[in-house]
From TrEMBL:
Statement: the UniProt record of this protein carries the keyword Transmembrane: no
Source organism per UniProt: Buchnera aphidicola
Family: Belongs to the class-I aminoacyl-tRNA synthetase family.
Domain of life of the source: Bacteria
EC number: 6.1.1.18
Entry GO terms, CC: cytosol
Stored NCBIfam families: glnS, PRK14703.1
Protein name as catalogued: Glutamine--tRNA ligase
Amino acid sequence: MNTKVEKNSNFICQIINKDFKKNKELSFRTRFPPEPNGYLHIGHAKSICLNFELANIYKGKCNLRFDDTNPTKENIKYIKSIKNDINWLGYKWHGKTHYTSEYFSQLYQYAKELIKKNLAYIDQLTKEEIRIFRGTLTTPGKNSPYRNRTIKENIELFKKMKRGEFSEGEACLRAKIDMSSSFIIMRDPVLYRIISTEHHQTQKKWCIYPMYDFAHCLSDSIEGITHSLCTLEFQDNKSLYNWILQNTSVKKYPKQYEFSRLNLEFSILSKRKLKILIKQNIIKKWDDPRIPTISGLRRKGYTSSSIREFCQKIGVTKQNHLIQFSILEHCIRKELNQTAIRTMAVLEPIKISLYNLDENHKEIFIVPNHPKNPELGTHEVIFSKTIYIERSDFKEKYDKQYKRLKLGEEIRLRYAYIIKAEKIEKDKHNNITSIICYCDLNTLGKKPKNKKNPAVIHWISVKNIFPAEFRLYNQLFTTKNPDQKKDFLSYINPESLIKKKGFIEKTIAIKINKNITDKNEKLYFQFERIGYFCIDNLDSKKNQLIFNRTVSLRDSYKI
Ligand code: ATP
Ligand code: MG
């Protein structure tokens, strides 16, 4: 699949093209800067594809840098999963993995530089007071009473902060810029705060931590990032990004450019809110197939190429849109249409007895695994007197609209014969236990002249069944834009997961069982007429197969 981005694909490329015109030797470098405070989601995939693809096409480099400036929210397990997801998406970062925490000593020196230039001071207002003093969009802020401390005093207090002689919230370092700036971000932003939690990389070495705005631009500069790409919410932060670079002794001046973040229908793309879903037991874990984390999508059956294709399709602009979920589904459907093995599965079985066949009747049909790609091979389908069809493929009561099996009418069994439903058997609760049918043995591979062409349904012979669980996923939310709803938890779809117990073809199950212990080997199927499925590598065991529905055969999302 062609997922290559080209040199004219978006507005960022145009900026880079100009930069290269000015400087042919430009050593182009981007970075992907995740906070290790959760798993990656499809929004991050957009940023990953952009940063890594640009590095590819401009023969530059893309760094991976963990933005680890808040140890209270971070965890090593997130670092592992993020690296794994980036690799799975098909990208390799340049050189070693970077951490903002590697630069803590340098950042501390840069902070001291600002103090020495009288451009930063130690404030001792409380968090709440700082907020009130900051003012609003319509009213200017007020200077802190600590703003005019001497440089010497500030240096001493900053050292004291570093030595752990203040407790959390008692002091912080603020830039001295302009409390009446029209950019609220420029009203003496906090640069350093005290956090007394042990850090996963630096352990107990530090108790003061730089804020994102201070650390990010300087880390970009230290790493020689030329184009620092972020989402539109950071537009205002750019003035601070540039202010810090201009007022410290950095050697390199990266530039920040913003693009619109991905918003996807029916989806929450915020780690904080995803954590709430897990905490409240609405979903199981970060890899629940109902959420658009990379691990959830992978488990649902999405391939890395389909996600890359999606990211390319939606493009990169400065306009915020809500992207249709069907675009994501289109990408995986298109791919699986070419690659998935066709086979039959019955999710809600009902028995059919072909009364004119012998108990020992057994025929083997060799059927293609793919209608258009003979390279995918063939498999055997067994036909016999007793078979299962889908409960929804039969209707007892007459219904003119209904095109599948009806009492007194005919239907074609996929790859096999035309049968006619003549009688039904019921149990004492009036449930149908089996449908008694006549099998027209003259109809294999041909259409008798005197008959209409009936609809085709899938089936499995009792001689070829293997039990399986099927997990059918629907959207987790009953609203298209849950991320915009304050009470997003009141829009949970109670039918987001439906489990069915039915059968797959034994001939296929044997092959799957051989591979089931290989967690990396993913097998994709099209269960004819039902949808694309993959084996759930996490919950399946040998002989206990569980399938996740990746996507239905046609676009069918309803709420
Ligand atoms: P979240 O809101 O999910 O917590 P975040 O922005 O805090 O996301 P980070 O780990 O800081 O998550 O993000 C790493 C990179 O991914 C950043 O450059 C960020 O701009 C980008 N990113 C995050 N979410 C999206 C999104 N929905 N669309 C595009 N890029 C995104
Ligand atoms: Mg963030």
